[in-house]
Write a structure and sequence with these properties.
The protein is α/β, with parallel strands linked by helices. The protein is 53% helix and 12% strand. The chain is globular and about 85 Å long.
C-alpha cells in the first residue's frame, strides 16, 4: 500500500514537472519570437514606441509627413490589429495625408501597464504619444467603437486639437442608456486569461480564445504583422482595466461633454435591409472559411434571412434613436450608414474610405 502511494506521488510530481517544463519552454519561445517580431516591425516603421511616463506606446506613423491633415486611428475594445486592419482604408490617403495609428496601453505593440485605464489617462496617452512621435495637432480622428468614447472626451476637453471626427459605430458615452448594452467584463475568467497570456500561452491557444479571425483584405506581410500584434497583446492587464472601468469612463465623459462646432460624422453599420443582411451573412461565412471553421449561416434559408432582417430592424430602430440624440448633444454631427459588421472598415473599406475622402474635402473648403 505504501509503495502504491509512493508511485502515485512520483507520477504526480513527474506530471507537474513536465507541465511546468512545457510552460517554461512556451514562455521562452514567446519572448524570443516577440523580440524578433518587434525588430522586423521596427525595420518596417510599424513599431515606433514612445514613452508616455512609465511605459511605451506604439505610434505607427506613415504617409505624407507634410500632409495638410493628420488622420489618427483609434481602435475599438480588444482590437489589437487596428493599425493593420484599418490600412485598406487609410492607405488610400498615404500619398496626401499623414496617418498615425496609436495603440493604447496593452494594445498592439504597446506595453501593458497596471495604471488604471481611466478615460483621462487614455486620452492623455494619445496626446503625449502623438506629440512625442512628431505628430502635431490638429488631428482628424478616425475612431472605432470604444474609440468613439475617447474621441468624445478629447474633443470636449481639448477642442483646439481636433479638426474633425469620424466615428465608426462609436460608443456614445451612455447617451440614452445605449452603451449600457456594452457590459463591463470584470470576470475572473478574463483575469485568468490575462495571467495565462503573460506566459505566452496565447501562441498555443489563440484561435480558441479569440474566435474567428479574418485578415482577408490585408497583404501577406500585413496579416503576419497583425498576428504578431495579437500574440503580443492578447488579454493584457491594461485591456482588463479598460473593460472594468467602462461605465465609469462613460460617466466621466458625460460630465465633461461639450457641444462643439467640430465637424463630425457618425457611421452606423448594423444592416437594415435584406440585401445588407445577406452581405453580412456572406461576409461572416467567408470569415469562418478563412479561419478553417464551418459557415454560420445558410444564405438560402429564406426564413432565417427574414428572421434576421426583423431582428436587425428592431435593433437599428433603437440604435438610430440613440445616435440621433447623441449627434445633437455633441454638435455638428451628421449620421451616415454603411451596413455590415461592427468592424465595418474590414468588410467595406472602400465605402469607409470614400466617406473619409468626402469629409476631408469638406474640411478643406
Amino acid at each position: 500500500m505504501e509503495n502504491k502511494r509512493k508511485r502515485v506521488f512520483v507520477m504526480i510530481r513527474l506530471f507537474l514537472i513536465i507541465i511546468l517544463s512545457l510552460w517554461l519552454i512556451v514562455f521562452i519561445v514567446h519572448k524570443l519570437l516577440t523580440v524578433s517580431e518587434m525588430k522586423k516591425m521596427k525595420a518596417e516603421g510599424i513599431y515606433n514606441p514612445v514613452n508616455v511616463g512609465g511605459y511605451d506606446i506604439n505610434v505607427y506613423v506613415y504617409g505624407n509627413e507634410n500632409g495638410k491633415h493628420t488622420i489618427v486611428g483609434m481602435s475599438g475594445k480588444g482590437v489589437n490589429t487596428f493599425s493593420m486592419g484599418i490600412k485598406p482604408v487609410t492607405d488610400r490617403f498615404s500619398s496626401e495625408q499623414q496617418i498615425a495609428v496609436v495603440d493604447r496601453a496593452g494594445y498592439g505593440m504597446s506595453d501593458s501597464t497596471t495604471t488604471p485605464q481611466t478615460v483621462d489617462r487614455i486620452v492623455e496617452d494619445y496626446r503625449t504619444a502623438l506629440k512625442r512621435a512628431g505628430c502635431d495637432a490638429p488631428y482628424l480622428l478616425l475612431a472605432h467603437s470604444i474609440g468613439g468614447l475617447y474621441a468624445t472626451y478629447w474633443q470636449s476637453v481639448y477642442p483646439d486639437e481636433i479638426e474633425g471626427i469620424i466615428m465608426l459605430e462609436g460608443s456614445m458615452a451612455g447617451i440614452d442608456g445605449y452603451d449600457d448594452e456594452q457590459s463591463e467584463i470584470t470576470s475572473m475568467h478574463e483575469l485568468f486569461l490575462t495571467g495565462l497570456c503573460n506566459t505566452g500561452l496565447q501562441r498555443v491557444f489563440h484561435d480558441s480564445m479569440k474566435g474567428t479571425i479574418s485578415w482577408r483584405n490585408l497583404t501577406i506581410n500585413q496579416a503576419k504583422y497583425a498576428k504578431a500584434m495579437e500574440m503580443h497583446s492578447t488579454y493584457t492587464y491594461a485591456q482588463h482595466s479598460e473593460s472594468k472601468l467602462f461605465s465609469e469612463n462613460s460617466k466621466d465623459t458625460l460630465q465633461v461633454l461639450e457641444k462643439t462646432d467640430i465637424p463630425k460624422i457618425y457611421v452606423t453599420s448594423q444592416p437594415n435591409s435584406t440585401e445588407e443582411i445577406i452581405e453580412y451573412m456572406e461576409y461572416r461565412n467567408a470569415s469562418c472559411k478563412s479561419a478553417g471553421k464551418e459557415p454560420l449561416y445558410d444564405v438560402n434559408d429564406t426564413a432565417l434571412v427574414e428572421k434576421m432582417t426583423e431582428n436587425f430592424s428592431d435593433a437599428c430602430l433603437y440604435q438610430n434613436q440613440a445616435v440621433s440624440k447623441f449627434a445633437s448633444v455633441i454638435g455638428n454631427c451628421r449620421i451616415e450608414h454603411i451596413g455590415g459588421i461592427h468592424n465595418i472598415y474590414k468588410q467595406k473599406p472602400a465605402q469607409v474610405a470614400s466617406l473619409l475622402a468626402e469629409f476631408i474635402k469638406e474640411l478643406d473648403k
